[in-house]
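Q: Sequence in, structure out?
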Amino acid sequence: MPWKKWSNMRFGLALCFTLTACGASGPQEEVVAHVGDTHLEASALEALLPYGASEEDRQRAITDWIGRELLYREAIDRGFHESLKLQQQLERTRRNLLVAALLDDELGNGEVDVTETEIQRYYDGNAELFRRESPEVQARHILLSSQRQANARRNDLRRGADFADVARSHSEDVDTRDSGGELGVFSRADDAALWSACQYLELNTLSQPIRTEYGYHLIEVQARYEASSVRPLEQVRGKIVEKLVWQKHRQRMDQLVKTLKNREDWGINAQ
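A: Exactly. Output:
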């Protein structure tokens, strides 16, 4: 339920806040804010801020800290800390934080190597995972705000200008401009307007200006793929690497649990 999710998030935020931002300041620490006898030290504030944070971000973090500390104190005054249910939730949160810290230490040290042989073996053995559910196209485009601009850029391209250079210089699609207008591989479900615009274009042929809800496009379709065809390895390499890294982390975690089982007294009670 949404309330339960929000409730759990509040408990987690409260615990993280208590662990990282509160406490009495040491004699050498600069104190940047306080509520009662609880101090926010400069080092704790820096830990709360992202890299490159502005002065505005810093002031907002201080204000947020004061607000949360006031709420925390009010919760204590009202006796919420004596709730058995809350104590159980806090204990679970604490356990999860400690387990996460352990796994980060065990799995985070050292790179996980994934070889080309492992990638190819996974790809060859799991072709069904990479079949297309629907037709797809691969295309690139240049988006412009008016037909006059689109005609001018099309003339540049017909005179020999490089498509990627024109896209970087003139396209108004900020998501694809820096990559030379590359849209990648997509289906109707990804973008119905662009999909429709590509349907009747010949491969590797510059289109006339095509108007959609976004503006005027110059489109070049580079490839078409039928439904049920298998995506080439290069299109799915990143996902395969992520999967293999996860598997290797899981194997290391399982090995750690196996080692701990040999050290500890444990069992499963009969149901």
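The chain has three domains: 2-98, 116-126+231-261, 132-225.
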